[in-house]
Design goal:
Blueprint: H1 9-13, H2 16-46, H3 56-104, H4 108-128, H5 142-145, H6 151-168, H7 174-199, H8 204-229, H9 233-254, H10 267-283
Helix pairs in contact: 2-8, 2-9, 3-4, 3-7, 3-8, 3-9, 3-10, 4-6, 4-10, 6-7, 8-9
Length: about 290
């Protein structure tokens, strides 16, 4: 995730990320510029009586398109923010679970078990939410969990099984067992919420229609702008295209908040935070 100063106007205007977007769109911008130049040449130089087309239709369509883009970006941001809230809750639940384990028992083996399994669950969740990368989580018990088709569930089940064993041995009271089970259940709830975001993309028909709408709007835009701007229609149409498609690209990037794009959630640093907090809590003396 990109960290920045929202009050620094000039650094935001000339930020490198905008240049990356421009480089990505440059071939399409060039194609739109060539198309607009061709329309300008035909209407201004080739046709003796240029077509008199009104901009009213494009004005109305532009208003409708702007509403669609607002809804598109808001929907994508809602998914991003929901993912961030879930991972923020995961940080807190992991801390609470570690604190309770530390205070409920003086068994160092129990401390070591949860030192491994709390970060193990979190790292497994991070890998689980990035299926396209095809990487594995790292940890001492990875081989034991590898046979599971759902690795985060295996880590959670191992912690719940340990809680039940210590309850049966009388090491933990029923109330203590209930509190720890609630923390583990909350971690599984967060897992399910993240899977819901990952496996429920923006509806195909909506995404397809948005792209078609933008394409048709920009392709027909030169016809309405030539009589108004003349040859200046070329940079004007390219600018409109750049703005519309950039907004769509931003929405595409943040609608999957668990990836590795620059604006995605910093899952790696969140995992490191949970690991460091867990180790500190369960190894602190006194």
């Amino acid at each position: 995730m990109i960290h920045y100063d929202p009050k620094s106007w000039f650094s935001l205007i000339f930020q490198a990320y905008s240049r990356q977007v421009f480089r990505r769109l440059f071939p399409l911008l060039l194609a739109v510029g060539v198309l607009t130049a061709l329309v300008c040449y035909i209407e201004l130089e080739f046709i003796k009586e240029p077509l008199e087309l009104s901009n009213v239709v494009h004005s109305l369509l532009g208003f409708v398109l702007s509403l669609f883009l607002v809804f598109r970006t808001n929907t994508a941001y809602d998914r991003w923010w929901e993912g961030r809230k879930q991972w923020g809750s995961l940080v807190n639940v992991s801390r609470i679970l570690a604190i309770r384990v530390r205070e409920f028992t003086q068994d160092e083996k129990a401390w070591q078990f949860y030192q491994e399994h709390i970060p193990g669950f979190v790292n497994a969740l991070r890998v689980h939410l990035r299926p396209s990368l095809k990487v594995r989580s790292t940890g001492p018990s990875d081989e034991a969990m590898a046979s599971s088709s759902h690795v985060p569930n295996a880590w959670a089940q191992a912690m719940e099984r340990d809680c039940a064993k210590r309850l049966a041995q009388g090491e933990w009271s029923p109330q203590q067992h209930w509190l720890l089970s609630q923390d583990i259940a909350r971690m599984v709830d967060i897992l399910g919420a993240c899977e819901r975001i990952l496996k429920t993309p923006i509806p195909y028909s909506y995404s397809m229609f948005m792209k078609k709408f933008i394409f048709l709007y920009v392709v027909t835009l030169p016809l309405g702008f030539v009589n108004t701007f003349g040859w200046w229609a070329i940079p004007v149409v390219m600018l409109v295209f750049y703005i519309l498609v950039s907004i769509e690209l931003i929405a595409e990037e943040i609608e999957d908040p668990f990836g590795v794009d620059e604006n995605d959630l910093p899952l790696d640093s969140l995992c490191e935070t949970i690991d460091a907090n867990t180790q500190e809590i369960l190894t602190r003396q006194g």
